[in-house]
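Subject: for your reference before the review

Hello V.,

The reviewers asked for a structural picture of the protein, and I figured it would be easier to keep everything in one thread rather than splitting it across files. Below is the amino acid sequence we used in the manuscript, unchanged from the supplementary table.
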Amino acid sequence: MKLVLKFSGKNIDPHKSAFLKPVVELWQKGTKLAFVHGGGPQISKFIEKMGKKPSFVQGLRVTDQEDMDLTEMVLSGLLNKALVGMLSQYGVAACGISGRDANLFIAKKHIINRENQLIDIGRVGDINQVNTQLIETLWNNKILPVVSPISSDGNGKSLNVNADWAAAQLAIALRVEKLLLFTDVPGVLSDPSKPDSLIEILSVNDVPLLIQKGIVTGGMIPKLQMIETVLRGGVEEVFIAEGASLKFVDQLFKGKSIPGTRIIR
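And here is what came back from the structure prediction:
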């Protein structure tokens, strides 16, 4: 089985490796796994240490060149290598890479169009090309890729790319069976004010209806639109859940229900 697993920065503790045990078990069972990670809270923390205030437009971080340098340092340096180190504690041969390595991710600059007004948010990108050779080379040599979403602009410079979208584009390019998103939300809720209103299973055809009827709102809308893109791109299933659900992930492959939402084709 091939799969892409994305883990949000909110759920990463660089000093505790126990949360990675399910990842290790999947890998040791022979799963071809690419592990993509975010790092939003950690980036914000370093930006604040510099006396600046993090700024977001439509959920995307405004990233000037100074912030881009810091973002790359945190994602591709601090967190990426911390994860590699933690995996090595379990005997896993892991290799930390970013989208810049071997042109894994080529992106174009993202410009926001809000009410017919173009907004430039800096060094932020959308991936338009994925070169999977590096991932496949690592897999063929039994090395687990740990992927930072920092991407290349095709001219030798970095672009900051949302980790969910990086994982999505990688899942499509690798033609994996499943994309697992462990993030800061419990899944898709029928009522965002009620954590117990979790929708456990959806079809890709349900996604536009949920948006049209206003059942999902805010930040969940772009997530579901991204998931719809993934499923229509050939991936069989997307699972979205909070980071704590990772410990149950083995049950997911046994057909059992775990906290989160499964979206299928």
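For the response letter, the relevant points are probably these. The two ends are 17 Å apart (CA to CA). The mean pLDDT is 92.

Happy to draft the paragraph if you're swamped.

O.
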